[in-house]
């Protein structure tokens, strides 16, 4: 049951995958790319999971707000009987790199919340749980903001966001950070919720590094719906999974 909740928590908040070991400073990439942030919206997802024959279902809500200078993302996931599994937030500014977090908040089922703080004046990232620090070089994301930075990059990249292309980010978690690489797989049809139907989507995958026991992540972005994530699938080493499907979009 514990593994199920861990996977469900990861899936329900749009890419809060459990990361690998902390990396050395020289492995900290800073890559500036064109970006085009999507409109503010409320997104509702259904959740389905399988873990050793145990089925889990529920829903997740995500609020995305952005203007020319600031952004805010909040996400919650719930399942029957257990109630709220996760609560995650990312807030920050919009600079010439794109999303620039100032605070990342992570709360998991039956665990104390943790916070990562991005001190933009001091150019340092610190954590409420632990004494690790990372320099701010530009372009750093957290595990909530990274999906929206990926969306913004995809919207601006157009023909460059093609099968086989790879896109690197440096991603801050609750206690440390590591580089993530997304690879574009190709165009696919995805069955979304009843209000959306079949959606043309771009399949992007984050595979864990060689030798890592991280979950793999597949994400489908919908160009016809502002490139919002229409489906996500987290797969464990034993092929159990958490899947998240977009049911409704309300633009703000």
Draw up the topology in text.
Blueprint: H1 2-12, E1 41-51, E2 54-66, E3 70-79, E4 83-95, E5 98-108, E6 114-119, E7 124-127, E8 133-135, E9 141-142, H2 145-157, E10 166-172, E11 177-191, E12 198-206, E13 216-222, E14 228-235, E15 241-251
Parallel strand pairs: 9-10
Antiparallel strand pairs: 1-2, 1-15, 2-3, 3-4, 4-5, 5-6, 6-7, 7-8, 10-11, 11-12, 12-13, 13-14, 14-15
Protein architecture, described:
By secondary structure, this protein is mostly beta strands. It has 2 helices and 15 strands. It has helices at residues 2-12, 145-157, and strands spanning 41-51, 54-66, 70-79, 83-95, 98-108, 114-119, 124-127, 133-135, 141-142, 166-172, 177-191, 198-206, 216-222, 228-235, 241-251. The termini are far apart.
């Amino acid at each position: 049951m514990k593994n199920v909740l861990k996977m469900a928590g990861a899936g329900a908040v749009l890419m809060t995958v459990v990361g690998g070991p902390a990396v050395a400073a020289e492995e900290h990439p800073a890559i500036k790319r064109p970006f085009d942030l999507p409109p503010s919206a409320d997104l509702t997802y259904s959740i389905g999971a399988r873990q050793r024959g145990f089925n889990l279902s529920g829903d997740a809500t995500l609020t995305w707000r952005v203007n020319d200078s600031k952004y805010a993302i909040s996400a919650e996931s719930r399942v029957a009987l257990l109630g709220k599994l996760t609560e995650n937030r990312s807030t920050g500014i919009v600079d010439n790199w794109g999303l620039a977090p100032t605070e990342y908040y992570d709360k998991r089922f039956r665990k104390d919340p943790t916070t990562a703080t991005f001190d933009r004046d001091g150019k340092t990232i610190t954590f409420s749980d632990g004494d690790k620090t990372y320099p701010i070089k530009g372009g750093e994301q957290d595990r909530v903001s990274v999906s929206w930075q990926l969306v913004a990059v995809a919207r601006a990249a157009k023909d460059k966001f093609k099968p086989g292309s790879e896109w690197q980010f440096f991603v801050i978690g609750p206690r440390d950070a590591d580089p993530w690489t997304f690879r574009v797989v190709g165009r696919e049809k995805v069955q979304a919720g009843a209000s959306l139907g079949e959606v043309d989507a771009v399949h992007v995958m984050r595979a864990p590094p060689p030798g890592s026991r991280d979950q793999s992540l597949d994400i489908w972005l919908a160009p016809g719906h502002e490139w919002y994530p229409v489906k996500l699938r987290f797969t464990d080493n034993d092929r159990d999974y958490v899947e998240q499907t977009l049911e409704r979009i309300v633009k703000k």
